[in-house]
Amino acid sequence: MSTAITLKQINKLAIPALIAGVSEPILSLTDAAIIGNMEQNATTSLAAVGIVTTFLSMLVWVLGQTRSAISSIISQYLGAGNVETVKNLPAQAIFVITTLSLVIIAITYPLASPIFKLYNASGDILNYSVDYYQIRVFGFPFTLFTIAVFGTFRGLQNTYFPMLIAISGALANIILDVVLVYGINGFIPAMHIKGAAYASVIAQLIMALLSAYFLLKKTDIPLIAKLPFNPEMKRFALMILNLFIRTIALNIALYFGTSFATKYGESYIAAYTIAINLWFLGAFLIDGYASAGNILSGKLFGAKDYKNLLELSNKLIKYGIVVGLFIGVIGAVFYYPLGNLFSNDEAVLTEFYSVFWIVLAMQPLCALAFIFDGVFKGLGKMKYLRNVLLFSTIVIFVPVIFWVDRLDYKLYGIFIAFTLWMIARGLPLIIKFRKTFIPLAQNT
Q1: How many helices (H) and strands (E) does the chain have?
Q2: Which residues, listed in sequence order, are joined to residue 184 by a DSSP beta bridge?
Q3: Where does 334-410 have alpha helices with state H?
Q4: Is the distance from CB of 298 to CB of 378 less than 8 angstroms?
Q5: How far, CA to CA in Å, does 47 sit from each of 99, 272, 285, 315, 403?
Q6: CA-CA distance, 160 to 12, in Å (whole number)?
Q7: Which of 367, 391, 380, 384 is nearest to 429 (CA)?
């Protein structure tokens, strides 16, 4: 690619990806908002949603790394002008990952109660967690299928169709949540927390069906897996392995955050649920630019256009900081209305308001870390991403969260640990990228 990457090109990919990315946390945020305002057992149910969402996020992030791996490989081949060579890779990857998801359902469904006891859930919170999970887990294969298709579209430099699919799923989830949680008098009984789980599963099914439709109608990428395996399947598997280890490290941090918040009491885990889901929303908003970095860096790297790759990174740093600050400002403006949207319990709101400012202050730091996550995934440098996250979790996050727990900082301490964790994740990536590609850009 001989011409410089412009803001228009970045936004053409980033804005649809941003909208598509927001659909993932919206599924959980919608559940949290509607459940948190139920007339009966709202706080207990909200706590259960928070615990299950953390565990499901772990499963999705561990196996959903197919999106980054597929996107990286296809975008690099596209940049090299040889995408035909990897046309059969997505179908093979989708078959492997969805088969594995069925195995996980078979293992975790009967073990739901012991799993959530590990998160310090007990009593009604444990019972609601099990009820919610044993329904929502059946949406897992649909989610992984959709994620893999999104990765294929991203590799082809297309974020428009994923955006349409994500909007459809999010709208379906919101409508179904209202109908199934509260019921329709005389027609549909109120199913409360189970209704929210059914709504999510149906929305995930809708997204999977739309994904298959758009991929088959708008591209020549097949969905039927055939042998022999594509030669790039080995590199794909190594990427997935490194990302798997990396995501385990990520979820260790999320596990300790949820576990400690649950230990502090019902109002704390409910407040943490609201705060962490809003943090996820901010992360997925920023993910639009991380996706643009992933898509464009893979293509530029495949074309060996190091000057424009370096220029892309400089622009993404600027845009990431601006987006992070914008999210922080919007959150500050709607600071109290956001809390009231998710709960009317004064004890929960008090704890939420005491830490939400930290979530907002983190946003520029998160932006840089997430954007360079995307860039390194586009480059296929999964091993380095793995090592950075292992370091930031084991050496930084875990010791800090135990330290602040001993100081009895509660939620305040949890989000201090998350802030330091994000700094340790982002800074090494920026330094490594610039040390690698500044000399390459100068020599071309």
Answers
A1: 18, 0
A2: 188
A3: 335-342, 346-361, 363-379, 382-391, 398-406
A4: yes
A5: 31, 9, 24, 40, 24
A6: 9
A7: 384
**Cross-strand pairs, 141:** none
Report DSSP letters for 198-209, one per residue: HHHHHHHHHHHH
For the cut 90, the answer to whether the pLDDT of residue 182 exceeds it is no
8 A C-beta contact, residue 151 and residue 67: yes
Residues 151, 300: Cα–Cα separation, whole Å: 17
**Predicted confidence (pLDDT) at residue 23 exceeds the cutoff of 70:** no
* C-alpha to C-alpha distance for 79 and 295, rounded to whole angstroms: 10
Give the whole-angstrom CA distance, residue 247 versus residue 249: 5
pLDDT in tens, 118-136: 888 888 889 999 999 999 9
Percent of the chain with pLDDT over 90: 48
Place of tokens 């424009």: 308
Angstrom distance (rounded) from CA 74 to CA 78: 6
Q: Kindly tell me the burial class for residue 283, based on how many C-beta atoms sit within 10 Å of its own C-beta (0-12, 13-18, 19 or more).
A: buried
Give the C-alpha separation, 155 to 79, whole Å: 10
What is the pTM for the complete model shown? 0.78
Question: Which range, 15-24, 334-343, 432-441, is most confident?
Answer: 432-441
Would you give the DSSP letter of residue 84?
G
pLDDT of residue 379 exceeding 60: yes
Nearest Cα neighbor of 363 from 272, 280, 268, 262 is 280
Per-residue pLDDT tens digits for 190-245: 788 888 899 989 999 999 999 999 999 999 899 998 889 999 999 998 988 898 88
Q: State the DSSP H helix or E strand holding residue 408, giving kind and residue range, or none if neither.
A: none
Phi, psi at 232, each rounded to 5°: -80, 0
